Amino acid sequence: AQAVIVAIDGPSGTGKSSTSKAVAAKLGLSYLDTGAQYRAITWWMVSNDIDITDPSAIAAVAGKPEIVSGTDPAEPTITVDGTDVAGPIRTQEVTSKVSAVSAVPEVRARITELQRALAASAPAGIVVEGRDIGTTVLPDADLKIFLTASPEARAARRSGELKGADINATREALVKRDEADSSRKTSPLAKADDAVEVDTSDLTLEQVIECVVTLVEEKR
Ligand code: C5P
Known about the structure:
This protein is α/β, with parallel strands linked by helices. 50% of the residues lie in helices and 16% in strands. The protein has one domain (4-219): 3-Layer(aba) Sandwich (Rossmann fold), CATH 3.40.50. The protein has helices at 16-27, 34-47, 55-61, 92-102, 105-121, 133-137, 151-161, 167-183, 205-219; strands spanning 4-9, 30-33, 67-70, 77-80, 83-84, 125-130, 143-148, 196-199. The strands form two sheets. A five-stranded parallel sheet has the order 2-6-1-7-8, with helices on both faces. A three-stranded antiparallel sheet has the order 3-4-5, covered by helices on one side. The termini are close together. Residues 12, 34-35, 38-39, 98-99, 102, 130-133, 177, 181 line the site of cytidine-5'-monophosphate.
């Protein structure tokens, strides 16, 4: 069988990561969390005191950190210059700064190159989740999914993940990040014309996984 490439895009809190990981595991495919890569480069910028309000300062060092993603869906990993950063990339500080870093074209060019190389070398194929996978990174993907959900459903899921977080503050932060990601000049968050849109607001995770698995099997 030929390798199958699946692109899963959408805003945060729509269930992209849980869905993508489960679909990859079920179908024996590799898995890539591209948000983790942008978070990793952001973590490096913060750790090295780069002024992230200055795009030219970010651009000047965008090539410096070595970012390596492990693509086993059972145990995805991410390192920066050999350091495991799976924990530190999920802090509120990184989350609040990642949109500014990911908007810089030099950062996107660099990370996009890593993504294409990983997709090309996945033996059975890969599920790649992000914001611009179907539109920019892998425009020839065999299947493109665009996940959506109401702001309420997304904030409720995120607050569940971040135990005890205030739901209104969570919703505001989510909406703000999506606006920044959707309005940037270089490959914004967008649905590809040929993507299948799935509204997950009233679906369980199992239902979303089942839906995507069926769509992949139709393509194989
Ligand atoms: O998916 P996650 O919430 O971890 O993504 C973190 C951030 O990384 C997004 O808010 C966005 O700024 C950036 N990102 C991106 N392009 C992608 C994936 C993530 O710009 N393909």
